[in-house]
Amino acid sequence: MSEGVDNWGQWFEGLRLRELKAFEKAKLPDKDDPRWRWADAAALEIPQMTPAPIPAIETLVLAKQHAAELFENPLAQIVFVDGHLAAFSALPEKWVKKGVHFLPLSQAKQEIPALVAPMLFQSIHSLGGDPFVRWHRAGNAEGVFLHVPKGVALDGLLSVVHFTHAQNATLCPHALCLLEENTQASLVQSLHSLSPSPAFVCEETEIFLGKNAALNHSGIQNLDTLVRCQRAQAAVLGEGARLRDFSTQLGAKLDRRECNVQLAGARADARLFSVGVPCKGQCFDQRTYQGHLAPDTSSDLFYKNGVLAQGRSVFSGMIDVKPKAQGTAAYQSNRNLLMSDSAQAVSMPGLEIGANDVKCSHGATDAPIDPEQLFYLRQRGIGEQQARALLLEGFLTEVIERTEMGELKAPLQKLLAQKLEGCLDGR
Amino acid sequence: MKASLEIKDLSVSIGERPILKDFSLTINKGEIHALMGPNGTGKSTLAKALAGHPDYTVTGGQALMDGQDLLALSPEQRARWGLFMAFQYPLEIEGVSIANFIRAALQARLKEGEDFSAGDYYKELYAKMDALKMDRAFTARALNVGFSGGEKKRCEVLQMMMLKPAYALLDETDSGLDIDALRIVAEGVNALRGPDFGALVITHYQRLLDYIVPDFVHVMADGRIVKSGGKELALELEKHGYEGIAQA
Q1: Which of A46, A106, A372, B216 is the most exposed place for a label (fewest CB within 10 A)?
Q2: Which of A380, A384, A395 sits opposite B163 (nearest CB)?
């Protein structure tokens, strides 16, 4: 444990080296592993770690400008380019005085190491991406540390933005979120590209929610289509804690996102949302786990993909109700709208129930656009192409509305519109 | 140019099955025609074929709208030319609000570079919603999703009032309406009545025609019109039933 440490730098380096060893011993991803079933072959490869050099000053300025356009008045924002800090607008003094920390991870490791150390790299990832997580931890993990002390409810959006820029850079964005008892916060993590260059983004997000803590968390992935992305997120929810998690997948050539939720305390509640729009050779791979460990917990997963020409989506989800988790309510729904004959969606919903007093359901649908809906719109004078775009937007908007994260609606609809503009020409 | 919707010897099939057989009818602007008849005689087929539904194949005949060949156009072109169909079963469109939907339909009618003011648009939309006794909060709701039968039909009439078509095909707009809703919907249709508007009201029941009084009534059987007359024909139907009329 971390108490009485004299040299924190050495302590964190030791942690990193342990992860490096674990990575070297780890079994590499394998097609025969059911957790990698239907994955793109390219998703299995672990590249060489090649951290990018510090970007030029004008690149950092550009990143700051782009980031400023993303959200209206975030409470605080941290911006990185290739894992290097580009801008940091800190929390208003009012929140700092209340003991809230929202800092670049490297700064937090230096300034408040005793707070960071006990929880950093403690998450367990069970959905197949574990070797990538070890690789990430052994590498140049940089990102954000969020800590909300007992009883504090933040009332604005916290934003972390990572840009890729240098050719073939490897980035390891990290987020560590600790919300203590009776707290509230909203965090959005965005991944974007400043230039059309290949890169590898390997992200880990760790979320720990104390008793009655509430976190709105969203991840927006809008990377360049030359980028490959591997992400793992794990959340542990204490008694009465609430997590609202919303993922948007728009960019990257290949984006695998693992979302692992452990409802460890009684009455914990998780709502998991996702929208994805793969097109033109993109593959979005979504693996989820809703683990019910305690009584009267609830979870509801609602994932939708609008799959365009030559796009591919993979969804594999598991609801796992442990014997102690009586009174569980767990739902899982994956719906895919196939916008083209060349669009492909694979869906593998799953359910394992170890308790007898539960309400559970899961389901998946893959369907093309309803021709009757299309005719209805066309009969009102809306051209076929626009009608299809409107139906797709509507299909995805339903998720955005259900998240009740109003502050993200306008920025997301803007990103979606940009994406569809570039993709809807092919059938 | 003839200001009419002229249907001449129109034959329509669904797959291999012929439904409409040499159907002819002319609706001049300023006129309201009622088309009645039992289930399965081809009333809805006529509306859908004229609107350009891809499942309906025109195997013969013509349809001219103000002298232009309607059947050569795509569904959206027909709509932009001024043909509106109120659906018997309006579709539910998740995630698309009523306000955005009608605005998209209006924008599709604009020429390149043209636009209209959002303020004027909402002013008009709200006025028409008030007339139809629709709650203004409906504008933000997803189109027809979770609406009652009556709300869906009001929404159809709202769209028609906003799009101001030259010709409207109302396919059993009265089904699923209680008497109060029926009156409101009929008032909406009547508000469009005038020298620049022609309509075909498809219905099973005479009741609707108490509120939308037709200039002409036609009775259909087996894919064609078997009897035409004035509004009194509807009353006759109510008394003697379709069989009595077909035999007469």
Answers
A1: A372
A2: A380
